Amino acid sequence: MRKVMLLGAVVLALLGCSSTPTAYHTLAMDMGNPAVAPAVSQRIRSLGVGPITLPTLLDREGLVIRQNATTLAVSDTHLWGGQLEDEFLHALAQHLQTRLPVTRVQTIPWELSQTPQYQVVVKLDQFDGTPHGKAQLRGLWQLQAGQDDKILSTEAITLTQQTTTPDVVGLVTAQSVLVAQLADHIVRGLATR
């Protein structure tokens, strides 16, 4: 009888552990109606996006959730649907393509014969947040000449977006808005070329 009760307790404990389903998240690539920059798009024939460099802290499946200024948690139930680096790269490229409709926007890697006129490189120091607060993106982006990788401009960037709901979905939505805002900064930078 005692063994049966012990076995029942173990089964219940295991069921309790597995009752929280794993949720997979992706950065939204359609964030409303962005301002289109047709004059910039006509001047710039092609734009390459990437590489995206993440700190090792973010190079993991679980979402990094900020607890406070010095404490982070990595969720084991809220995971990125793919590698965050790829998610970020493709979301940024799509936002740029929407804003630059005539420009051919492509992501790394590309064929030598398809080398873009310009290339955007992003280096992130922070891309996290709190579900009941705000999401933050901090780092820099560089514009390089496509043919010789000469750095044409560099902009340090710090963006913050308030979450709209007090859950992880609200955090990921806010992070998606930050990627769209980064695309806006890049398009403004391209306008000076």
Automatic annotation (TrEMBL):
SUPFAM superfamilies: XCC0632-like
Protein name per its UniProtKB record: Membrane integrity-associated transporter subunit PqiC
PROSITE patterns according to UniProt: PROKAR_LIPOPROTEIN
Organism per entry: Thiothrix fructosivorans
Top-level taxon: Bacteria
Leader sequence segment: 1-23
InterPro entries: ABC_trans_aux
Pfam family, any one: ABC_trans_aux
Gene3D superfamilies, A to Z: ABC-type transport auxiliary lipoprotein component (3.40.50.10610)
Keyword field: Signal
Residues of the ABC-type transport auxiliary lipoprotein component domain: 34-187
